[in-house]
Amino acid sequence: IEIYTLDDIFSKIYQKYSKKKPSWIKIDVEGREMDVLLGGYKSLRSGLVDGILWEHRVGSLENPYRDDIIRFLGDLGFSSYTASESNMISLRDCVKKDESQFQIIKRLMKV
Asked: What single DSSP character describes residue 4?
């Protein structure tokens, strides 16, 4: 089994698709969100992604790293919001200043 970090994947996407960048990502890895995010540290720090939808609940259990994830993303310039019973959305603080956070969440959730 080949394993790639989020940074590896973003690098390949960036090269293959003429330097286009993903505007947001969804992470659903049953409680291992922090591992995925750590593997994407360079990409997230560089401003490559504007929004991240991630699970803060695994079944009926709260992700034990929820607060660590929120802090980690906050240090990278993201603000986190509850999007649903089991999902959080973290948005880069500079995303479309003319839109309210609510409008951005609504727009991203429709995708």
From this structure: -
d(CA 89, CA 104): 10
pLDDT digits (tens, 9 = 90+) for 2-40: 889 999 988 887 777 766 667 788 999 988 999 999 999
| Pairing mode of beta strands 57-58, 61-62 | antiparallel
Task: Flag whether the pTM goes above 0.85.
Answer: no
Q: Nearest 5 degrees, angle CA 37-CA 19-CA 52?
A: 30
State the residue for tokens 């080949």.
2
Q: What's the first-to-final CA gap in the chain, in angstroms?
A: 30
What distance in Å separates the CA atoms of residue 31 and residue 16, rounded to the nearest whole number? 30
Residue with tokens 């993903």: 22
Residues 91 and 79: beta-carbon distance below 8 Å: yes
Helical H segments across the chain, by residue range: 6-16, 33-38, 41-46, 66-75, 101-109
User: Each residue of 30-41: pLDDT tens digit?
Assistant: 889 999 999 999
